[in-house]
Amino acid sequence: MAQSINITELHLPQLEMLKNQLDQEVEFFSTSIAQLKVVQTKYVEAKDCLNMLNKSNEGKQLHSSTCGSRMPYAHTGVQPSWGS
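Structure tokens predicted for Prefoldin subunit 5:
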């Protein structure tokens, strides 16, 4: 469990250390959120592409050129394990 600290009792160097730590954590979380948004966008694009392929190619054999630039699995034969 996290330790509680009364910041009014900290000296200036300790406050500066705390501020630096919090700045680093904010930067980490901001970067993580940005990365998650990129991954989310790629996931939505891939899911849309898969839905399009499923609807337009029922009963047809797929060719590697179909949606291959946005769906790296199209060339490998590997099926992604994403939920719908």
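The two ends are 37 Å apart (CA to CA).
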